[in-house]
Amino acid sequence: MSIWAAISIVAVVGLITYSMRSVAIVALANRSIPPAAQRALRNVGPAVLAALTVNLAAGGDGGPSMEVAEVLALLVSGGVAWWKKNLILTLGAGMLTLWMASAIV
Description:
Blueprint: H1 3-27, H2 35-41, H3 44-58, H4 68-84, H5 87-104
Helix pairs in contact: 4-5
């Protein structure tokens, strides 16, 4: 495959993806979202983070693949999430702990 064919494929797929997303946004622009849907959408961020965390903890090879720094960051971020119930603080505490622990270990 030539470089221009690859660039063309990426551009076409990008345009299709962009148009599919923009159609949904434009179609819902003048409509209000029902309260039940708004409540459900609040849980999308934490659900995605939980799925990524479980994927990291379970590992791709069937066994745990976490290092000490990652386990420590997971414990700290879990504690902050339970204590403060704030997604941004949880992310910040977890990343700060991961960076500090990775530098030390």
